[in-house]
Amino acid sequence: MPLTSATHRSRQKRQHVSGGELAYVDEGQGPVILLVHGIPSSSWMFRKLILELVAQGFRVVAPDMLGFGASDKPQGYEIYDPRRQAQRLQELMEALDIDSWYHLCHDVGGVWTWELLREVPLKIEKLVLLNTIIYEEGFRPPMRFSRNVWSRFYVSLYHWRLTARMMIDATLKNGLNGQKLSKAEKEGYWQPMCEGGHRGIFHFFTQTCHKLEDYRPVLQNLGVPAMVIWGAKDPMLQWQPQADRVMADLNIPKEQVHILAEASHFIPEEQSEEIAELMGAFLRPRLGS
């Protein structure tokens, strides 16, 4: 069966958490890897990576965060606060009776991850950073808005069917290194926008990315093995300006920093096989335990 938005959603289960229901993929057997997406994506972005990791012998849990993908998209503003999003991740893993796991975060999934680690630092056994938000250094969001009429209008363009396609096409073009996605692949990104996905984006543009919180104490006290996989041509999240700081704070050795020279921001779309191979080598020691 081809990987379409409809078939992807047919794979998903649902779990009630604070604020609504999360749709999530839970496939495979073995050590658990939690994949946390960013904006304006969902578990759809990981569809190929999920298959690769399951084939390696992992159990992969990939939720659509509240406001994204096939999850509920309630009205409101503070409901999309990073602390609340982190709480929902914790609630999901508790509902699945998963006490500890490996963890990958992409884009604003990093912010939700740092909030999660602030509350439950002992849950994550190994961490993979995939073009994610860490520090202001290297963070170049396409825009930062105040919460006003103009920003509401702009973000509403992600909601209306005609303009949603245009906005998502532009976002993908900016975050891919020349790779062309099919109409079906793009649909997995713009369909959730028409269902209310613009609400979570509004909070991100007007709050989360407006002024990043300093998560340095969280990272410095984490004390778990971490690996970096980064697209070198990402215009929004640049590795070099923050490389020394991140490697020092997370105690990441140089051999665990993998810069993919021809990849950009949405690297699971571009190099899912390479990412899975690197993750397997990093996480595999536990498979024989």
Strands, helices and their partners?
Blueprint: H1 5-11, E1 13-17, E2 20-27, E3 32-36, H2 47-55, E4 59-63, H3 82-95, E5 101-107, H4 109-119, E6 124-132, H5 149-156, H6 161-175, H7 183-208, H8 216-220, E7 226-231, H9 243-249, E8 257-260, H10 267-270, H11 272-283
Parallel strand pairs: 3-4, 3-5, 5-6, 6-7, 7-8
Antiparallel strand pairs: 1-2, 2-4
Q: Could you give me the name of the CATH homologous superfamily?
A: Alpha/Beta hydrolase fold, catalytic domain
Give me the strand/helix succession. Answer: HEEEHEHEHEHHHHEHEHH
CATH topology: Rossmann fold
Which CATH top level class fits?
Alpha Beta
- Computed Rg: 17 Å
Q: Identify the CATH architecture.
A: 3-Layer(aba) Sandwich
Question: How many angstroms does the end-to-end distance come to?
Answer: 34 Å
Tally of discrete structural domains? 1
User: What is the tally of beta strands?
Assistant: 8
